[in-house]
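FYI - complex with zinc ion, inputs then prediction.
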Amino acid sequence: MKAYQLSIFAENKPGRLAKVTRILGKENINIRAISISSSDAFGVINMLVDDPERAQKVLSKEGLTVKLKEVIAVIIEDRPGGLDKLIQLLYDENINVENAYGFVLESWKKAVFVVDVDQIEKTQAVLKKNGVETLDTEALLAAEPFHYMKY
Amino acid sequence: MYWEKEIETISRKNLEALQLERLRKSVKNASASYHYKNLFETIGVDPEKISSLDDIKKIPFTNKEDLRENWPYGFLAVSKDELVRMHSSSGTTGRATIIFHTQHDLDEWTNIVARSMYMTGMRRGDVFQNMMTYGLFTGGLGFHYGAEKVGALIIPAGSGNSKRQIQLMQDFQTTVIHIIPSYALHLSTVFEELGIDPRRDTNLGIAFLGAEPHSEKTRQKIEDFYGVNAFNSYGLSEMNGPGVSFECQYKNGMHIWEDNYIVEIIDPDTLEPVPDGEEGELVLTTLLREGMPILRYRTKDLTRIIPGPCECGRTHRRIERIKGRTDDMLVLKGVNIFPIQIEKILMDIEGVGTNYQIILERKDYNDHMIVKVEVHKEFFSGDLKQLETLRRAITEELKSDILITPRVELVEPNALPKSEGKAVRVIDNRED
Ligand SMILES: [Zn+2]
């Protein structure tokens, strides 16, 4: 199952994130989850949106540097220990998590977690073997968020 | 293949004889000007007594300050009625220096520009798009008249307006362009945005790069992107402008037209000449200019003579790509750095985009260098780690060459100020 996040190269200066959200808002593209990783002078804004391809197009047109990046979206149980199960599984298999963030689907029941890993195919195989459900972009689109949470 | 075979391939002996004859005339002519008349009287130079090329050393150097102090007419060697055009230097500090030309001066200048262009393969029938500012700046009109003399069709496009430039290239099948290198790199991003590939969608074959020192890698980038043969050129308004020195088809140094100029390379500190092959400051003397002759002009540009003959058969010596200007030299923590050194390193690193900027700051009596580098659009993979790796690589490469560890900041493609004229590469925020 393939899911894509938007990765946007952005300098750490006021207004960069606001520019991104303004463009997406105007284009009626829904942001499902967001995470920002940064060094001191520049960073990368990662986003899950409901229409990644169109989002990439409109953002690029406005001069932003945007890549679609394949990530894995999994459904975990929204309760203490739910996330731990997933992380331990990846750790056991020596898979390095570069970035992770997510959002709750149903409070205390289900959450969607997005992981950006170094070995995407291996991760998918491991998850499948262990019966962990992954979502593709369409399934993500269908999932109703409750609120955002950040890892 | 030669514009003027006889003069371009003249033997060194005959060239030197010609230079001496012209030097004597030029010095004598110069002594009619207010500045040189006073100077010669003060230090006792007799123009009649110049009997060898070596005697040029009896004449003191001329500096930009001399031109400023004698602004505007102190160097005129003819009456004002003889003048038909003026140009000025693009200096950013102080009063611009003005150079006046008689019709004869313009004709000679036009001839060496035509000679230079012809040397690179431009011919009658070519369509020449001149993407330089027309006006006081010599790059526009200088090339314009040279191209006209060769017999090309000129599109006097002027600078800027990128989309129109591309449109003109396509509509009139431009074959030759004259462009500032940093603008050529910027224009490549506009081509990409428009989805136009100059290799496929234009007829471009030759590019003249000028008005700005640039690295070999920048030339390669331009050649690869546009599918052209790009030629480096050198000139300065005090010595007319473009056409002083130009690359031939072998692109190994720029032939400097020694029938028009006497070339000296000196040590900028001791002011003594250095032997051929050694680096120093370029000093030029006009041999054919009547309106405003300038003797032993210190260009502040650092280069060296490339020893030995060129395969093309021309006997006029070659100077190497300008290493920098003594004016541009940055002194940071006691280390001398030329911006072009930094460009050379940056352009060799994969992932670096088309523009960069060097910022100097002073904090707690300590100087710091910040280098802002645009990331290439295609390079970004969405990964912060990849950017960090690039930043480290740039820092390391710079450190090993300039011996100072700069703070490298990666910025988005096209984030730095675009240059449609000469690029501003260095911002010095240090206060004295
Ligand atoms: Zn040659």
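The first strand of chain B starts at residue 83 and ends at 88. The interface with chain A takes residues 375, 377, 380-385, 387-388, 391, 409-415 of chain B (CB under 8 Å).
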